[in-house]
Amino acid sequence: MLKIENLTATVGEAEEAKQIINGLTLEVPAGEVHAIMGPNGAGKSTLSYVLTGRSGYEVTGGSATLNGDDILEMDPEERAAKGMFLSFQYPVEIPGVPVMTFVRTAMNSQRKLRGEDEISAPDFIKKSREIAKQLKLDAEMLKRPVNVGFSGGEKKRLEIYQMMMLEPRFLILDETDSGLDIDALKTVAEGVNAMRSPERGMLVITHYQRLLDYIKPDKVHVLAAGRIVKTGGPDLAHRLEAEGYDGVLGEAV
């Protein structure tokens, strides 16, 4: 599924570019959910941006493949069509563009790149209603401009709605629990867990154990100074919650 080898990357313009990812190696097989935890500035969000092709980030070494395809050579829309999906820590607002118009356009753009037929209006509406009901999204919300006037919890539920509509092959969730109350967290986690399958992989980026109580990871990785310094099972997240990062990072030195 996702395989990263000795990846290095910088952010910023030319002479002012700062190296954030420093020889990162990671593999997430199909059917597994891996969590990445780490202190502020460790490179967690940078990794998600590099993998999905956000501008302003430059890969300076190493490789990243999805099912054997070199994603670093692809434009962002090509990566999306191949099945990459990023749930943002801070979802952006898109004034003037209704949610359903945005999502149907995204679905059909990806289908076109894959050589598939567009989804019909009746099929789209049926699928949208089913997923919105599951996520407790009001139908009127889907007629509003993307994220405009939405609460933090509504924005996160809307991203999970987009994810479930697009059915990506690999999910990157960048601090999806940020700003959520306990009810919204449970709803979002239920949507994520509904996407688990033997053909799909997930990378969950989080600061806190509480999200991993609802989205159970197969492995937990600790990221520090742009590289993976420790890997373990779900118990590693509990240890980080109890002890903080100092002990684990001290062991890695």
TrEMBL record:
Belongs to the ABC transporter superfamily. Ycf16 family. Gene3D superfamilies: P-loop containing nucleotide triphosphate hydrolases. InterPro entries: AAA+_ATPase, ABC_transporter-like_ATP-bd, FeS-cluster_ATPase_SufC, P-loop_NTPase. Keywords: ATP-binding, Nucleotide-binding. Pfam families: ABC_tran. One of its GO terms (molecular function) is ATP hydrolysis activity. SUPFAM superfamilies: P-loop containing nucleoside triphosphate hydrolases. This is FeS assembly ATPase SufC. Residues 2-250 form the ABC transporter domain. PROSITE patterns: ABC_TRANSPORTER_2 (PS50893).
